[in-house]
Amino acid sequence: MEVRNRYAPSPTGLQHIGGIRTALFNYLFARAQGGAFILRLEDTDRARFDQAFVQNLYDAFGWLGLTWDEGPDIGGPAGPYVQSERFALYRKYARELLEKGEAYYCFCSAQRLEELRKARETARSQEAGYDRLCRDIPAEEAARRAAAGEPHTIRLKIPLGKSTRFTDRLLGDIEWKNDDVNPDPVLLKSDGFPTYHLANVVDDHLMGISHVLRAQEWLSSTPLHVILYQAFGWEPPEFCHLPMVMGQDGKKLSKRHGATSIDEFRRQGYLPDALLNYVALLGASYEEGKDIYTLEELAERFRLDKLNKASAVFDYKKLEWYNGQYIRMKTDEDLAALALPYAAEAGLFGKAGDEGSPEDRALFTAAIALVKERISFLSEIPGKLGYLFRDPPVPAAAEFIPKKSDLARTVRLLEIGRDLILPLSGLNDADAEALVKERAGKEGVKIGDLLMPLRVAVTGARVSPPLFGSIRLLGAERSLARVDGALGVLRSPSADSACSTNV
Ligand code: GLU
């Protein structure tokens, strides 16, 4: 059997982790089986629809680098792939069910249904949903009333007194009593629009979907869908309801736990491949002892029988670890290109949005090596490298003073440091270290004490990217100017009065 599966989002919200996980598992399964992965927009809920959410979907998938084989943007043999362009089809199929006696016209007004709901609430009745009032109207009479223009919906006539069975690839055999299924749900609304159930089943059938992989929250709709397939006389697809994604407190993952929308992860400086790698593990296993996978490697290993029944727990710390790993796996050039938008947005090269001159960008790329090992997010990079692009303000004198030292000794340490700048600017790390060691020995000072004021003077902070690399990138002239500025502050009378010995 040819595997065909789909991601069928409703554009009523931003793309989030749960949706991406569903899409990714469908993608991997299709790839693993040599099948086709389809994107279908389920935009029947016109009240909550927003074109911005469609754009968000394309942006999110474009950024992630996940593609489909058929879809609204690229077409395909089973199109159109947008439900609002298929309304005539749903009407046709709803009529077919009416003719077969598997569905019926319902003339109950919204007001009656609301009164029914309220009356049950007052009576604390367990019953929910429609009371099937119109189910027994003789078909001819109902057809006449509908033809005369009486407002109506079309409802599915659920066969009562029976059970519906299906096998879920993950959860096993599932059986529901039909009497417990949502009572005779609406298939076609009074405005002629289909409901999710009708459109979803008709499309899965017409698009030749062989496997429905979707989140477990849809499980309660599946008996109804199976009944619909039977009513049409169609073979249902295979179902596989994916484990839920939870926060660490065991509740469904939501904004309370942290970022959930793909936009937000992107803004925070996650790499798309790190995010995909982590999301691929939410409820699935691949290979013992292996953490890092490319999409191709995941697709080679993805199997439905390696899915977990238990809910997946979304661990932000683990994702952060992945992000750090992926950052370190990039070449400096690739990382610089990925980080450039964050640097531009943060105003690293001037005004916010400014992408910098070719010289700026060359410096940025060269500086990536200084921070690559120390960051978890791309968004951290501009904050860490600001001192290379703008002279930082000279910190207060106390900042320069090493532990157990004082201002006079610090001035002396910085003067020695100043001496070293010219040679340091031309040496690699190992040679630079040897030089500093030798000089510290000669002066009888600790290496750390020698480097501390120099670091504060050159980078503007006690904690900074590596000092030798910074001096090399800034060059001797700019480094010396900063040290001279710092010496000016340290030698001023106000510094003296502001400082006592650092303990
Ligand atoms: N439109 C539904 C959603 O928003 C699709 C559910 C399904 O995959 O059947 O997730």
Order of helices and strands: EHEHHEHHEEEEHEHEEHHHEHHHHHHHHH
Structural class: mainly alpha
Based on Cα principal axes, name the global outline.
elongated
Q: State Rg.
A: 33 Å
Task: Give the spatial strand order of the biggest sheet.
Answer: 3-4-7
> Please, how many helices?
19
Q: State the low-pLDDT regions, or none.
A: none
Mean pLDDT rating: 96
Tell me the span between the first and last alpha carbons: 75 Å
Bound molecules: glutamic acid
Measured as a percent range, the helix fraction is 40-55%
- What do we call the CATH homologous superfamily of the domain at 268-389? Glutamyl-trna Synthetase, Domain 2
What report would you give on this structure?
- The chain has 503 residues and is mainly alpha-helical.
- It contains 19 helices and eleven strands.
- A three-stranded antiparallel β-sheet has the order 3-4-7. A two-stranded parallel sheet has the order 1-2. A two-stranded antiparallel sheet has the order 5-6.
- Helix 7 links the parallel strand 8 and strand 9 (238-242).
- Helix 12 crosses helix 13 (358-371).
- The protein is elongated and about 105 Å long.
- Bound molecules: glutamic acid.
Q: Which properties best describe this structure?
A:
two-stranded parallel ribbon, binds glutamic acid, 503 residues, Glutamyl-tRNA Synthetase, domain 2, elongated, Arc Repressor Mutant, subunit A, 48% helix
